[in-house]
């Protein structure tokens, strides 16, 4: 099989709809659903078998965590937006990935596979992170499965060991470099950055004897079980950076979800929501890339036009004419005003300044 550098192919709503009826879409969603099913009723700290391939991917992520530790944030106390040192980390990681991937994948596939992995750390240009970047990490894992590096027997370890380690890396990057949330979903989002830990985490809690969806309001349960269940770990993270009010105030969607009767209901809703709010959103999916491993023949190859945000804004002839996007569509939300990191706001001290959507 030949390999190629993945490229963007989705620009218009019509191309997004074409993708949603493709085998590439079915492969990607099917893989997420299989990962989800594999961890139903399983704790992070349970003993599970890890294959040599799983351990190699974990070692790669550990290397990146150590790399982050060697690149401290630069003095940037006057700004609560992304720290420029992230660019240094990003470039060093991109430089090291070909060598780090050699023990994991065949050399010819490194360019294709590494493209997804480096994109999963966030945007180098905007120093932000969101669900689209998270989706790139799933694409990286799916490539490893298609290459036979990871197998069906590795699904549980892929979530509870590899994905959890990726979350460790991303929380480190978010805290260290104050990555901005990609987009301005505001309080109706689950988390400033992630979606999948809520899906996988709700799967973990299905049929739990004592922990119910409403248990997210119990500080003792969060403290005791946040290391064992991703969903509760996410609640602990949110509480740590948005500690001036209740979930009802700063995370009303999570508060609403806590009224669900069962974790099975929550998990089913998360899968539907991921399809609608991530896979069906043009501002997210226009950045998704396709190569030979995750192959989509539809749409049209898009050349990057670096305008600072990574979108392809078609300029009007008259400079006074408002930019339009994708043949008449409105400019994506993520091209509006930057949204400061809540982590940065929390780090500002006890006299925390209010930020939009906080």
TrEMBL record:
GO terms for molecular function: peptidyl-prolyl cis-trans isomerase activity; protein tyrosine phosphatase activator activity. It is an enzyme of class 5 (isomerase). SUPFAM superfamilies: PTPA-like. It comes from the Eukaryota. It is found in: Cytoplasm. Its EC number is 5.2.1.8. Its main location: cytoplasm. Keywords: Cytoplasm, Isomerase, Rotamase. One of its GO terms (biological process) is mitotic spindle organization. GO terms for cellular component: cytoplasm; nucleus; protein phosphatase type 2A complex. It catalyses: [protein]-peptidylproline (omega=180) = [protein]-peptidylproline (omega=0). PPIases accelerate the folding of proteins. It catalyzes the cis-trans isomerization of proline imidic peptide bonds in oligopeptides. Belongs to the PTPA-type PPIase family. This is Serine/threonine-protein phosphatase 2A activator. It comes from Mortierella isabellina (Filamentous fungus).
């Amino acid at each position: 099989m030949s390999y190629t550098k993945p490229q963007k192919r989705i620009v218009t709503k019509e191309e997004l709809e074409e993708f949603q009826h493709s085998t590439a879409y079915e492969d990607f969603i099917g893989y997420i659903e299989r990962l989800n099913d594999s961890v139903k009723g399983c704790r992070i700290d349970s003993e599970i078998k890890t294959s040599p391939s799983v351990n190699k991917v974990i070692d790669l992520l550990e290397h990146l965590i150590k790399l982050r530790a060697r690149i401290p944030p630069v003095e940037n106390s006057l700004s609560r937006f992304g720290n420029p040192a992230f660019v240094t980390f990003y470039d060093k990681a991109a430089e090291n990935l070909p060598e780090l991937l050699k023990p994991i994948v065949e050399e010819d596939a490194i360019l294709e596979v590494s493209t997804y992995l480096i994109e999963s750390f966030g945007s180098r240009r905007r120093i932000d992170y969101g669900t689209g970047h998270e989706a790139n990490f799933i694409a990286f894992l799916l490539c490893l499965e298609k290459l036979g590096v990871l197998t069906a027997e590795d699904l549980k370890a892929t979530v509870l060991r590899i994905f959890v380690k990726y979350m460790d890396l991303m929380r480190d990057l978010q805290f260290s470099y104050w990555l901005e949330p990609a987009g301005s979903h505001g309080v109706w989002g689950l988390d400033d950055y992630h979606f999948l830990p809520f899906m996988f985490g709700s799967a973990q809690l299905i049929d739990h004897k004592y922990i119910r969806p409403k248990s997210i309001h119990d500080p003792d349960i969060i403290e005791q079980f946040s290391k064992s269940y991703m969903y509760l770990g996410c609640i602990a993270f949110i509480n740590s950076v948005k500690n001036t009010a209740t979930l009802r105030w700063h995370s009303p969607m999570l508060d609403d979800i806590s009224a669900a009767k069962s974790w099975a209901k929550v998990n089913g809703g998360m899968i539907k929501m991921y399809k609608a709010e991530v896979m069906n959103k043009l501002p997210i999916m226009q950045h998704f890339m396709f190569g030979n491993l995750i192959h989509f023949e539809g749409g049209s190859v898009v050349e990057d036009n670096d305008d600072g945000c990574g979108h392809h804004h078609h300029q009007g002839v008259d400079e006074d004419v408002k930019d339009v996007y994708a043949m008449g569509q409105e400019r994506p939300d993520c091209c509006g005003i930057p949204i400061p990191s809540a982590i940065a706001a929390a780090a500002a001290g006890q006299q925390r300044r209010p930020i939009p959507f906080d």
